[in-house]
Structures are given as structure tokens and as C-alpha cells.
Amino acid sequence: MAQDLHLLTLTQIAASLRNGDFSACEITDLLLRRIEASDASLNAFITVTADQALATAKRADETRAAGKAGALNGLPLAHKDIFCTRDVLTSCGSHMLDNFVAPYDATVVERFANAGAVMLGKTNMDEFAMGSSNETSFFGPVHNPWDLERTPGGSSGGSSAAVAARLAPAATGTDTGGSIRQPAALTGTVGLKPTYGRVSRYGMIAFASSLDQAGVITRSAEDAALLLGVMAGFDARDSTCIDHPVPDYVAGLSTSLNGLRVGIVRQHFDAGLDGQTALAVKAALAVLEEQGAILSEVDLPNLDLSVPTYYVVAPAECSSNLSRFDGVRFGHRASDPKDLFDLYCRSRGEGFGAEVKRRIMTGTYVLSAGYYDAYYLKAQQVRQLIADDFRKAFADVDVIAGPTAPTPAFKLGDKTDDPITMYLNDIYTIGANLAGLPAISTPCGFVAGLPVGLHLVGPPWGEEALLRCAHQYQLQTDWHLACPEAYR
Amino acid sequence: MKPAWEVVIGLEVHTQLATRSKIFSGAATEYGAAPNTQACLVDLGYPGVLPVLNEEVVRMACKFGLAVNATVAERSVFARKNYFYPDLPKGYQISQYELPIVKHGELFIQGDDGSDKRIGITRAHLEEDAGKSIHEGLQQFSGIDLNRAGTPLLEIVSEPDLRSAKEAVAYMRKIHSIVRYLGISDGNMQEGSFRCDANVSVRPRGQDTLGTRAELKNLNSFRFVEKAINFEVQRQIELIEDGGTVVQETRLYDSDKDETRSMRSKEEANDYRYFPDPDLLPVEIEKSFIDSVRASLPELPDAKQQRFVNEYALKPDDADILTLSRALADYFEAAAAAGSASAQVVANWVLGDLAAALNRDGLEIENSRVTAADLAGLVDRIADDTISGKIAKEVFEIMWKRGGSESPTIPVPAGQLSLAGQIIKELDLEQISDTSAIEAVVDEVIAANPSQVADYQSGKEKLFGFFVGKVMQQTGGKANPGQVNAILKARLSK
Amino acid sequence: MHKAACIIAARASQVGLRARNSRNSPVSLNKEQVQRIATLARLKLADEEAAETVQKLSRIVAFVDQLSQANTDNVTPMAHPLNASQRLRADVVTELDDRDHVQENAAAVQDGLYLVPKVIE
User: Fold this and answer.
1) Which of B36, B50, B55, B78 to mutate to test the interface with A (most CBs of A within 10 A)?
2) Of C65, C68, C102, the CB nearest to A103
3) Per-residue confidence band for B404, with pLDDT thresholds at 50, 70 and 90
4) Inter-chain residue contact A239 with B281, CB threshold 8 Å
5) Do B20 and C92 touch (CB under 8 A)?
6) Is residue B238 domain-shared with residue B288, that is, in the same domain?
7) Domain spans, chain A
8) What domain range includes position B128?
9) Which pairing describes strands B283-284 and B75-76: parallel, antiparallel, or unpaired?
10) Which of B133, B153, B405, B480 is the one with CA 20 to 30 A from B451?
11) Cα distance from B41 to chain A (closest Cα, Å)?
């Protein structure tokens, strides 16, 4: 058996399992040991489901021997701790839910399990997915495998760190304003956020219902395509999930980029973008052009308003979504409440961290009497304008390309003092959430030893083009193959 | 009430829709299950779960809209009403706010002046019911049962067109009748599936602007609606006449004390922060759906009442009462069709002896112990002079006690005899219509009471009843009363 | 004009949150307003948290206030990013009783009821 199984991508592991090069039990065991070894330095996992993983792997090996292997049979992966997993702690990175054992599986979890995947554990995350650096987690920050003093991004920082450090070949994530793509960019991994309604939200603990979408963090576009094919599709338990055919994403990868129309947003390269990062992204665009893509400029005039729009809509929805955490049916309950009001205020005051409370309060404020029009209604109108901008742009181009994040990974603690500085980290990614569009981040270089991401956005249901574009780019480059030295 | 004041009332009627499953989840809606056994993850507001709208709920709301001549909205939107309360697991109630599914309807009631009065229906919207708090036997705690959480409700809001407690009750009865006709609610008030809030205000007669209103909560019987409104009207008038002002507030009716009292605690600092529920999308209803619902509508109370007057020549007031409930109207029609007597006589029986018996035993018409066919058989025996109306009442009571023609208490011989016929035969109750037999009894009575005969003949005509009584006594009440009268008259005038 | 807003605006004074009347006035929140929002959201803030919250919330509110610059005349607010409409489910009972399992997550339960401090009506 080779010593570096952990370096294999999901697609490569699948092939090896088919060939009988090694068993699901072997790779699972290896990864569980890596997770354990790195736990103190990275803090990528909240829960490691070792026994369950080994049992599932054993079953997968038996299923394979019986000739009945599913699409992901024996493939190990991790779930962001925002997905409900039956009889396993589902904390959402919060003290509020640090005792919550979900009585059911999220649709995404169920689909992966049915396809034979092996869950290694639940990854760390910003509390209730509110954060861009993983520092709001009740379970402590996750460290970036490229530099332990830096953030792996957020909110899916546990997932991005785990994949970058080769603890898991893939992990699920959720993306409300960039929470899959920004961590992917900051850790040199691939992050895919599908079209709103492409993947069921059932069982994914809601942050902002109209923006949240489940996706994956992987090491290659090919792996993302493989997983999307399993997780996507209609779910009768989610009213916002759309019944739209699921293509064979893997089969679509091989078409060349010849003639692909790629739009560039000029504002993306204005002040605010780190100069070195800009160079890396521009070099990536040149690679696309070499492969036959046609670059042109597109205009998204209302994009400047995307961050303020987001910070009205998302807190408003979260303030309401998080009202259910009241200490009565599940979650943290304050001890010896003197009355009902006290039970509510203390359970919530103690259970939620500072950033979550701030967002709940922001949302409460923008929805409250006298402010609804000026903030919430206005934001939903601006959101429509932003969506219209994208719609017009996609009349002329197939994908829009640019940077994923304005800078490479920043140091833990650097941006915790001012919420706005932190919020502006998502400036390039938020537009796709507001308009419900699919987007992907793929590694495109390094700045001072830290990874940089190329961001691609597509029209609704445009995942195929995004995956193909990222895959073809990855065939020409090896940024996505880079592994942090300590985890080789 | 002093006529110087005009009363203005608007009602919000909450009707529980009779679906099998809840409005946004697949949990059962049955009443009376053990606590929290019919509260699934969606009803409990568990993390991660999502609502999906029940189709039947939309169909039912649509039915109601069409029945009250309203507009069924092509597009309606569910919103979240945010507030914290233990019976509200998500911390918000899913309801419809700006864009309800039904708007601009109307219905007609008999107004206080006796004429038909139009009452506007502002809107009817869909929402989920809350759970229940239980206070008994738990010391310092309240217990929360969420079985009812997520039960579909249609909230029907009237215009402030009602001018008295009586009109309010008439309106509420009309709504009750319509929802039961449509089969969209069982209208069961004991179980809370039909309840209402009343917005009550008073103003000096002739004033255009409305007075400040109080909202009376959770009135769950017709009687309470009437009493609560009357109490509240009196309270407001007295308050104003004593120089006070009415405060806009929510008041709870206490049926034990027959008074309303302020619920200030719940009113405090409410800011519901309504916004469209992002977990649910706008409900779009196609014209073809509305057309199919329209085609399935049953005949409604007003149309049926009109038909009963036209087709059966019933008194309009009787037709009104008979059509209040679809089951009662069906019973009447079945009885009228089964017999050969006039429909008005059948109606008299249904609204008289039958209604009294049902009322006495606390039964609904569906559970009547006398079937429509048996009642028709009885009425026919009066019409063909087999028995008198008086004997018929006795026969009816026997039929009621025995409980329907399926009752095994009498061995039914083959043949055409109705249940009434059997009882008449069994107890020998058949009317004596043989003239010579009656004449014989009359003669006996006259012979036995010479002094009364003399008094009668000298002008004490009131004594006629005395002779009728005697004849009836001697015939065991079976003599045909018409014949008895005629023969007595003839004999006494000699 | 948005109907909900009219209704909501009418209640503004009731909650004590003063609506803005001038776009030029700098937006910020005071301690009392923040406390009122916290109460509405049922969040107890520790003393040291409160001061920081006032400062940070003011920052956020001032930041999102730039939305007022956008011209949104005649723009329909977004309902769903893909303009989809609500799907309906058949009226079928699909959920069976799982009370005991589900109540393992509750801190206080008696006879199948969730317990809260006594609710006084």
C-alpha cells in the first residue's frame, strides 16, 4: 500500500477502490489517524465519528464485494457541522447547540450516505455560519494549514482546512455570502456554491434562508462535479428547492474552453483588491484566454451595494430563523430562570456568541416598526437590481471571472475589532448569493506563500460551465495540487 | 342601550380547516392525541426543517372565497409574524399579511330591522395555529403541548359593518353555516375549531369617524359572542358618559364572571416585524384551479333557502332555519321526498318535535333517533287521518325511544307498514273515524251530563270544550277530533 | 406605498424606536435603543457586552444606510432569486410519532409536555 493515500483526490480514491488497490477501511483508518494527529494544531473538526466511519467503510467494502457499489461507495468525506446528522452532535459551532443531537439526517447527508460515502466527522465553522474567518466558533478558531497563525476563511473554515491539510479529500460546506468560496480561496482548495434551489436546504440549519446554499469543498473541479451530481436535485421537503434535471456534471468536464465567453467586472480590480492577488487572477484569465476563451468586460452597476444589501437581508432572516432557539425544546437552557422572559433572554444571551447576537439585533432593528421600508424592503429591491445586472451581463457572457477574496488569508485576530472590515471580505462573493447564482473558486496562485482563488460565476443552472472552466484550467495549472508542507 | 350611541363591530373568525395533515407538515391534525405525539419536527420548529404548503388548504380557502363572492388572489404571500411565546415554537407564526389568498367578499344576514343586510368580508387569510399551554397540576411550571401547532386556520375578517351583538351572532352563524356546507371545517366550537375575536367600538349616532375599539379575544360560542359584546358595549358607553376614554387594547372575555378584562401583559411592546417568509414562495393560483373548485361547490345556504321557498312553498323563516345546516336541510328534503304529506307539515315536525327532541338529548341531526323516512311515515298517517296530531306526538316519542326503524324492539312483519304504522297497530292507536261509533259516545256523554247541556244551551258556549274532553276521554283520545266537533255541535244545538 | 409599512409605521411610537426623518442625519444608535432591540430579540447582554454592542451596531447601521442612495422606484422586491412559485404537497399524513426520541434534546419535560416557567395570562 502506498504511503500517500491522503494525497489522492476523491476521483482517484474511487478508481483505486474499484481496482482493489486498497479498501475503504484502509483509507478511512488512515484519514482518521491524520485527523487525530492534526487536531491540536488545526482544530478543523468539532466531532470525529471514528467508530461510525469505520463501520460504514466496512459495509462499503462488503457492498463492493457483493457488486452493489453506489456512486460514492467507500469515499470518505466530512460534513460541516451545520448539517443535521442523525444521532450525532450537530452544534452549528455554537454553545447554543453544543448538546444538540439531531434526530434526523439532512437531505444532503442522506444522499451522500445512500451513495455509500463514509462520514469522517463534523467540521468546525463560524457560529451559525456567521463569520468570514472561523473565529466566531464556540469551539475556537480553525487554523490555516498554510500558516497556522492565519484564518482558513469562514464560515466553512473547518471544511476548507480539513481538505487543504489532506485530512479529508472532500467536505461539505454552506455558502450564504461566500462561506464556501472564500475559505476555498484562502486554503488553496476548490469551493462550489450551486444555484439557489439546486441542492436541498432540508436539514441544513438556516442562517439566511433566501441566500443559504449547500455545496462542497474539494481538491479538484472533477471531485466537485462528482459530488454535485449526488447532492443536487429535487427534494419535496424544501419548498425553495427546484425540480430541474441534474446533468452528468463529470461527463461535461472534458469539453474545451474554445469560444467560452468570459466576462470581467472592471470594479473587481479597483482599489480594495490586493495588488499581488490581482496579478495572480489576471494571469489565470490569460490561461483561460490561451485555451480559447473570449474575454470581455461586463458592467454590474449596482454591485457596490451588494455588501450593504446583504447585511440587511441576511441579518433580517437570521433574526427570525434563530428565534426558535429559546431553551425549551432543544439547545442551551439557562439554569433556574425566574420567569419566562428570563428563560428566553438568558438562554439566548448565554447560548449565542457576540457576532450572532449582533446579527440578530441588526436584523431585529431593520425589520422593526418604522424601519422596514428604509432597510428590508429597500434591500430586497436593490437585490432585484443586482440580479437584473447579472441577467443582462449573462446575455453576453457564459461566466464572469474575477478574484474570490480581496486578500490572501489574514492573521487570526486581525479583523475581529471592526465588523465592517470583516464583512468586506465577502465583497466579490456576495453578489452570487443575492442573485441566486452558481459560483466556484479554484486555486490560481500564491502570494507570499498563501493561496489565491479565481472566482467564476455562472447564470442559473450554469454549474456545468463553471466546473468545466475550472477543470480545464486545472488541466493547464497545478496550483490545486499544492499541499502545505506540514501535511504532505 | 341608549339610542344616542351607535355600536360598530367587526369580527375576525378563526376557522380550523378540516384537513388530514397540517398546513406545512405531514403530521396528523386529529383532536385529542397524547401531548406532543402529533407534533413532528416541522411543528416543533426543529433546526433545519422547512415548511411545505398543503394543497388541500389552498383548495379550501379557494372554496370559501368563491362561496362569499370574493376575489381569490392569483398571488398570495406567506409572512412571518415574529414574537416569543411558549406555544409558538419557531418564535414566529406563519400567516398571510399584505397579500391574503381571499379578499373583498360579502354575505347577507337578517339585520336588526328585519331586512337583508350586506356584510363585507375584508379578507380571509391562511395561517398556522399555535400550540397549547397547560397550567394545571404542574406547580411552578406551564406545560407546552404542540399537537395543535401547525393546524391550518382560515382567518375571516369582516368589515366593521355589524351594528349589534345580535347582528354579530347572525354573521358568525352564517359563516359557521357556510364553512360546514363547504365541508372545509367541522365548526366544532368545544374543540376550538371555530372561534372569533370581536373588534368593538361605540360612537355617537351620526358621527362618521369610528370610536376607539377594543379587541375581545377568543370567543368560542355564539352565546359568549353576544354576551361579551353586550358587556363591552355597556362598559364603553358608561366609561365615555362618565367622562373617560376608551383605550385601544385587547380584552379577554371571562364567561364565569360575564365580563371582559384587559390583557395588558400580552399587548406590551409588540412589534411583529412581519416580512415575507423566505422558506415559502409566493402562492400562485391558476384560473383552471379556481374553475375546478367552482365546479365542485355545493348548493349554499342562501340558494337552498330560496329553493325551499320556491320548490316546497315553505315559509321563508322556516326555510331559513332548515338551511342553517346542510345536514338539517338534507334531512328535511329526505323526509319530504319519502312521504306524501305537504312539505310545510314535514317542516313543522322537523322544526317542532324533532328539534325539541334533539335539543333535549343534546344530539346533532346526523344522530337523530328518528330517521327521515320514519318521520315521513308518521306525518303521512296524520295526513291520511289514521291518527290525530295529538296521538302522533305520542307515536313520535315512542319512535324516538325505540330509536329508528333498524331497532330490533318490534319484530317487523313483512309488508309495507312504516315504523309509525307498526306502533299505531301494536298499541291500537288508530283513530276512530266511524261516525256511528262516535255518535254513540257523544250521545252517552250528553245523557250523562244534563245540567251542563242545559247551561250550554242557555249560552255558556265555553262548555263545548268540556264535552270534547269527555268524548276524548271515553275513546282514549282516538276519536277523530274533527268529527267529534261536528257531531257534538249538531247534537247540542238540538 | 407599501401597505405593511404604513401599518408598521403606525406602531413605531409604541415600541419607542424613533423613525428617521432626515437622510442627512448621521445614523447611530444609543444605549437605550439597543436595549430595546435586545429585549425585542430576547437577548440578555452582559454589561461589558452592551457598550461594545452599541458601538458596533451603530457602525453596521451606518454602513447599510448607504442603500438609501439607490434608486429603486418601481422595483419589485425580490421574493425568490429564480422567481419560482410555491409548490404544494398532497394532504397526506406522513409523520409518525417520534416524541420520546425528539424530547431527548429538551432540558425539561414532564408527561410529554415541554416545561417553561409558569405562564401568567
Assistant:
1) B50
2) C102
3) low
4) yes
5) yes
6) yes
7) 5-263+397-487
8) 5-292
9) antiparallel
10) B480
11) 9
Judged by a CB distance cut-off of 8 A, whether residue C66 touches chain A is yes
Q: Tens digits of per-residue pLDDT, A42-63?
A: 999 999 999 999 999 999 999 9
SS (HEC) of chain B:
CCCCEEEEEEEEEEEECCCCECCCCCCECCCCCCCCCCCCCCCCCCCCCCCCEEHHHHHHHHHHHHHCCCEECCEECEEEEECCCCCCCCCEEEEECCCCCEEEEEEEEECCCCCEEEEEEEEEEEEECCCEEECCCCCCEEEEECCCCCCEEEEEEECCCECCHHHHHHHHHHHHHHHHHHCCCCCCCCCCCEEEEEEEEEEECCCCCCCCCEEEEEECCHHHHHHHHHHHHHHHHHHHHCCCCCCCEEEEEECCCCEEEECHHHHCCCCCCCEECCCCCCEECCHHHHHHHHHCCCCCHHHHHHHHHHHHCCCHHHHHHHCCCHHHHHHHHHHHHHCCCCHHHHHHHHHHHHHHHHHHHCCCHHHCCCCHHHHHHHHHHHHCCCCCHHHHHHHHHHHHHHCCCCCCCCCCCCCCCCHHHHHHHHCCCCCECCHHHHHHHHHHHHHHCHHHHHHHHCCCHHHHHHHHHHHHHHCCCCECHHHHHHHHHHHHCC
Buried b (16+ CB within 10 A) or exposed e, A433-463: bbbbbbbbbbbbbbbeebbbbbbbbbbbbbb
Task: Give per-residue pLDDT as tens, B263-286.
Answer: 865 445 679 999 999 999 999 999
Distance CA B223, CA B375 (A): 31
B83: closest chain C residue by CA: C40
Which residues of A are identified as catalytic?
80, 155, 179
B53/A contact by beta carbon, under 8 A: yes
Instruction: Flag whether residue C16 sits within 8 Å of chain A, measured between CB atoms.
Output: no
- Residues on chain B touching C117 (C-beta within 8 angstroms): 140-142
Q: Count of domains in chain B?
A: 3
| Interchain contact B398–A (C-beta under 8 A) | no
pLDDT tens digits for range B341-377: 889 999 999 999 999 999 999 888 988 989 898 898 8
Query: Are B393 and B259 in a shared domain?
Result: no
On whether the CB atoms of residues B301 and B177 are closer than 8 A, the answer is: yes
Å between B148 CA and nearest CA of chain A = 16
Query: Final residue of a domain: which of B407, B426, B445?
Result: B426
Supply the pLDDT for residue C121. Answer: 57
**Nearest Cβ partner for B50 among A202, A316, A364:** A202
Any CB–CB contact under 8 A between B240 and chain A?
no
Q: Does A100 touch chain B (CB under 8 A)?
A: yes
Task: Indicate if B59 and B175 belong to the same structural domain.
Answer: yes
> Which residues 331-370 in chain B show a CB within 8 A of chain C?
none
Q: Indicate yes or no: CB of B282 within 8 angstroms of CB of C111.
A: no
Alpha carbon C11 to chain centroid, angstroms: 15
Residue B412 banded pLDDT, cuts 50, 70, 90: very low
Cβ pairs bridging B and C (under 8 Å): 139
- B216 and B90 share one domain: yes
Q: Which of A106, A240, A317 sits opposite B281 (nearest CB)?
A: A240
Q: Which residue has the cell 480581496?
A: A406
Contact B53 C86 (CB under 8 A): yes
pLDDT, mean over chain A: 96
The yes or no reply on domain A5-263+397-487 and CATH 3.90.1300.10 is yes
Of the residues B401, B426, B451, the one at which a domain ends: B426
A418: which chain C residues are within 8 Å (Cβ-Cβ)?
59
Judged on CB neighbours under 10 Å (0-12, 13-18, 19+), B181 is buried
Pairing status of strand B71-72 against strand B53-54:
unpaired
